[in-house]
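[Automated response] Your request has been received and processed.

Submitted sequence:
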Amino acid sequence: MTYLYIVIGVLSVALIVLLYRYIRLKSEIRKISGQLEELVSDNSEKMLDISFVDKELERLAGLFNQYNDKQRQIVAGAIQDEDFLKDSVANISHDLRTPLTVILGHLQLIAKTDLTQEQKERLDIVNNKAVRMKELVDTFYEYSLVTTSNAEMKHEKLNILNMLIDLISDCAPLMDKKGITPQIDLPEHSVYIYSDRNAIDRILQNLITNSIRYSAGDISVKLTSNDSGIVLSVANPIPKDSELDPVRMFDRFYTGDSSRNSGGTGLGLAVVKELTAKLGGTITANREADQLTIELELPSGN
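Generated structure:
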């Protein structure tokens, strides 16, 4: 009987010890989970604590810290490479703008001299290519400035309706050339927002010209407003066999499929996305069958 009591006592102590270790283990697992949740939600950059009762948990936490440190180094290196790329693009673009301007100036002077018809045709070809090259360089330079500049937006009262009408008028020759008849749906009254004029002008210009350039038919432009801000919708048909992915449209250097690859840089809409974010707005793209719609929302800024 005494022996049975001893066995029961030993088992009870062992059970208590196991229960204690189980409770401590659960507590330490919850502790690790809490720290991982903090890391995942970007609320903490601390390494995991590695002081645990269970040695395997200590080893696991140590390995995770090594992995986390390695990932941070990779991210830091990627950011450094990204900054280097942006600086390089800005510097190269800046260096190319001056000689291109000089080239275009001399081409204009040559065009005013007495030339044969053949010489004029060849000069037109060279001039068109030089103009296109300058447009590409300016786009790269603009993107580098937008993504690297920390300058605050200069807000002022803007009549965005007038800005949009002026832009559509300026684009009339390009639309005529492509046989596009724009479907315009605008308010009958002025629409004002407080925002940065240069940023708004660039956003509108990139959206409209992008739609005209890649449209497979007539485009539509619709502007609405409410107390919180404005919504601009620009839509155009796309080729039936287009593989265009609207989710990636605002990624830099994305030019879609071959039907959209007309020599563009894939930076126009990336610039729009960057500027829209700086202005506190949102921009989305949606594709339904053969219709592409880009919707821009901007706050009134009041």
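Summary generated for your ticket: The first strand starts at residue 155 and ends at 159. The beta strands are 155-159, 183-185, 192-196, 220-225, 229-237, 282-288, 291-299.
If you did not submit this request, please reply to this message.
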